Amino acid sequence: MDYKSIEISNKYKLFSEQWQPKVIAEMNDYQFKIAKIKGEFIWHSHKETDETFIVIKGEIEIEFRDGFVKIKEGEMFVVPAGVEHKPKSKKESQIMLIEPKGVVNTGEEDSNNLTAKNDVWI
Amino acid sequence: MDYKSIEISNKYKLFSEQWQPKVIAEMNDYQFKIAKIKGEFIWHSHKETDETFIVIKGEIEIEFRDGFVKIKEGEMFVVPAGVEHKPKSKKESQIMLIEPKGVVNTGEEDSNNLTAKNDVWI
Questions:
Q1: Which domains does chain A have, with CATH numbers?
Q2: Which residues of B touch A100 (CB under 8 A)?
Q3: Is A92 within 8 Å of A39 (Cβ atoms)?
Q4: Which tens digits make up the pLDDT trace of B28-54?
Q5: To the nearest whole angstrom, how far is the Cα of B67 from the nearest Cα of chain A?
């Protein structure tokens, strides 16, 4: 059989829109999603699940109600379930998210503008 | 509160042994483990779960009974549950594994030599 690895960085060349996670791999009921982000997202949380951020390129910040974390290229952070957070990035950054299939990017918040279509593979 | 990102590459400076995954982060009941690998591992499988490999540095190969996949720096691959595989690396490579907590590195195979202690954080 012909097995192919997933070239993470190359996948970012296939789209330009920001804040719209695309699925590049699945492990059990979890998905690996990549996104380009710039500017500020909205405050939101995911009640049922932790959410992992890995920065592939650039540098992002995640704001919490009681602090913040900077995540640079090659670094990661796991946002615990239920914790309100607001991701942001001064310049466009490339991130990878790992979370269960079906998690909505805007969490419990209703935002037609920013809520991304789920399960979009690239 | 003081939040800290996890500097993935720096974590490899904290140990030298090969084929002994160390936990650097947890997301729900999943763990992110890093390992240095060189040479050939044994044939094994994980009946209950997929297993994700991300190559942080170097280049590895995973052999299957019916083929193989090369995974270079910045690339990833998900080995499906139950599929026999044998990871190997000509030169020492640095990998990150993502899988449910409690998964034994040698799968169903009994290998005192290669079976690593589980849940070792670094």
A1: 20-100 (2.60.120.10)
A2: 28
A3: no
A4: 999 999 999 999 999 999 999 999 999
A5: 5
